[in-house]
Amino acid sequence: MKQVTPLKLAILGSGKGSNARALIEASKQSKLYYETVLLITDIPHAGILRLGEEFQIPAYFFSPGPFKTKFAPEREQELVTLLREAKVDFIALAGFMRVIKEPLLAAFPKRILNIHPSLLPHFPGREAWEQAIDAGARESGCTVHLVDHGIDTGEILGQESVPIFQNDTANTLHLRIQEAEHRLYPCIVNTVAKTLLQKKSHY
Ligand code: GRF
Is the entire prediction scored with pTM above 0.90? Predict the structure, then answer.
């Protein structure tokens, strides 16, 4: 790849951060079109915060306000300010458990990605791996999509399927899906970064 300044990625996550780790490690191991510059979580002491220390990336607990499933509107606006100050170009949700609303969507149009643990449009919402087992599905997988106003409804950018075996439990399936997630997410994030960089160079 020719010498370009990588785009600045912020990762928002609520959990252990294995997808955040995959995104960070991929861009450290080989030169990609993005670099992770900010880690944000809505959960104090979330595992994802430890990645900040490990990889020397600013990582913050960002208090979301009184709601359980979304940011308070003024907090979401403040988050936009924080992301702007860090000169963030685009955002990856990685196990982030809040619905993104207008302030953030409007500030980063078509620049917020999510990874979901099923082959959308099948099994949107929570515990998608459990939904797949309960439905008796023979395969599942993961999907990277753009975030829009709905829940797991945005434009699909990439998918990887995994088989479901007869003796699978929700847990073993989730582990297999996560392995696929860790391959797929860095690949799609890099492709999106490359496309955004190409658009930028046409201005
Ligand atoms: C992943 O399975 C992702 O698909 C879902 O939440 C989980 C987050 O896991 N949205 P991690 O925190 O990245 O390990």
Answer: yes
